[in-house]
Amino acid sequence: MGQSQKRYQALHHQFLASARCVAMGHEIDPQNKIGCMIAGNVTYPHTCNPADVLAAQRTQREHNFYCGDVQVRGAYPAWAPALWEREGVRIEVSPEDAATLKADTVDFYSFSYYMSSTATADPALAEAGNIFGSAGNEYLKKSDWGWAIDPEGLRYYLEEVYDRYQVPLMIVENGLGAVDVPDEGGRIHDTYRIEYLRSHIEQMEQAIADGVDLMGYTMWGCIDLVSASTGEMKKRYGFIYVDKDNDGEGTLERSRKDSFYWYKKVIASNGADLS
C-alpha cells in the first residue's frame, strides 16, 4: 500500500471517528458544541494567468475544503474522486460509512491561521521557506522564518469559509514566530508581535461586520516553547519569555513581554482597546 493510499485511508477513518465522537458528545449532553480543527491556509493565484488561478483553486480545495466538507457537510466533495485518481488511491465508502458521516457533522469549524501563500502552474517559481509551499508574494512582508504576514488574508479566509459552511467559526491558532532579544534589563519589547496580532484582530472585526459568525479566538501560544514547525526554541510565539536556547541551555526563568501586558488589556476590553 502506497503512502498516499495510507494517508487518505487514514483520513477516512479519522472522519468516521470524528462523526462518532460528535454523536457521543451529543448523547452525553445535547447542548454540547463540537468542532473540527483545520490547518487553514489562504492561497492566492501568483498571477492572473488562468493556469495559476486553477492551481490556487486546487490548493484551496485540497488544503482547506477536503476535510471541512466531510466534517461540516457530511460528505466528500464532488471533486474528491478526481483527487483520488490523481493520487492513485482508492477509498471505499460503504453505505454505512456515508450514513455515519452525514448523520453527525460538527457544530462549528475551527482552524489555525498564520499566513497566506500563492500558487502557480510554473514549478520553477516554487519558493522555499514556507511550510505550505509558495511562489512568493511581493506585496507582503515576511516573518523571520519567511512566512508571509497577511492579516487581510485572515479576513478573506473567514468570509470564504463562512460563505461555504454557514456554521460558527473559531480561530484556535494565530501568532508570530520571531527572534526575541532581551534588552539590558531583561525586558522583551516585541512591538512586532503586538502589531501582528492587532492587525489580525482588526480584520476579524471587519469579517464580523460583514456577517461572519466568529465565536472565539485564541492566539498561539501563551508561553515560549519549542516550535513544532522547525524544532527551534528561538522561534518564539509567546507572551511570556522562557530563558532557554536551541541547545537546551538556560535557566528556564520566565518573564512577561510587552505583548503580555498589551494582550491583557485586549482581553479586559473584549477587543475594544487595541492601542
Q: Please tell me the overall pLDDT.
A: 94
The biggest sheet amounts to: 4 strands, parallel
Strand order of the largest sheet: 1-3-5-6
Q: Give the topology string: H per helix, E per strand.
A: HEEHHHEEHEHEEEH
Question: What's the multimeric state?
Answer: single chain
Number of helices: 7
Helix content: 40-55%
What distance lies between the first and last C-alpha atoms, to the nearest angstrom? 55 Å
Number of DSSP E strands: 8
Residue stretches low in confidence (pLDDT < 50, at least 5 long) are 128-132
Radius of gyration: 20 Å
Shape: globular
Give the class from helix and strand content and strand pairing. alpha/beta
β-strand amount:
5-15%
How is the secondary structure organized here?
Layout: H1 3-28, E1 35-39, E2 42-45, H2 50-73, H3 80-87, H4 95-103, E3 108-112, E4 116-119, H5 151-165, E5 169-173, H6 191-209, E6 214-217, E7 240-242, E8 254-256, H7 258-268
Parallel strand pairs: 1-3, 2-4, 3-5, 5-6
Antiparallel strand pairs: 7-8
Helix pairs in contact: 1-4, 5-6
